[in-house]
Amino acid sequence: MTFVKRREPPEPGSIPAVLGMFSAEVRFYREIAPVVGVRVPHCHHGEVRPDGSTVLILEDLSDWAPGADPAVAAMILREVHLRRSGLAAGRWPWLRPVGAAADLVGALYDSWWPGIRERRDLTSRVRALGDRLVGQVSTLPSAPGELTLVHGDAATRNFRTGPEGPVLLDWEDVSAAPGISDIAWLLVSSTPPQRWDEILDLYGSVAGLDEELAASAVQGVLSLSDHAEGTDEAIDRALRLDEAAQRLQS
User: Domains plus CATH for the chain?
Assistant: First the structure.
C-alpha cells in the first residue's frame, strides 16, 4: 500500500510559497533520501507540476506507531547532521538557507503574540520571553557552526516506529543550517523538561543552543494556537516553553 501526499500551489506571498516548502520535500525524496543515511519513507513517485502543486507517492506507514522516544530521535538527527556537516549546502544549493522568511515569521509572531499572551496556561517567564521577542524575531542571531542537512521540524510527531525501528518523515522544512536547530526544536516541541540534559548529552554538542532555543520558542509560541487553552497538550507545551525561557535567563 502507498500513501499519496498532494499539495495545492501555496498562496503567493505565504510562508510555504516563499520557502518553497512543498517542492523542497519532493526534491528531498528525489535527491537526498537515497543517500541520507537514516530510515525515511520509500518514495515511489515525486512530482512538481507546472501549476506549482506537488504529488508524492510514499510508503504507507499508517499502521506504524506514531512518534519515537526523544533520545532515539536525537541519535537519528545526530547521524544525519554528522554525515552532511559542511557538505549539504554545496551539494544541494536549493536547500533553504538560514534566516529565510524571517521577516514573514516575525510579522506573524508580532500579530499573534498579544492574543496568545492572555492565555492562562502560560507562565510569567514565558510571557516575559514573549514580550522580549516582539519586534526582534527577524533579527534573532543564528547559531554559530558549520551548516549541515537539517530536518527543520524534528518533533517526535514526525517519526513513526515499527518493526524496522524509527522512520523520520515530513521533510517540507528541510534546510541547510546548524544541527543544533533540530535539537532545540526537538526539546521545545516534544521533550519533557526533566529530560533536556539527557538529550543534549546524547547529542554531544550544545554550541549555539541559546540562539536556537530563542528561535524555537517563537515557533513554540505560534504553535500554541493549535491547542485549546488548558488542554494537556497546551499545558505540556507551555511547560517546555517555560524551560526554554528559564535557560535563556541563565
Answer: 64-249 (3.90.1200.10)
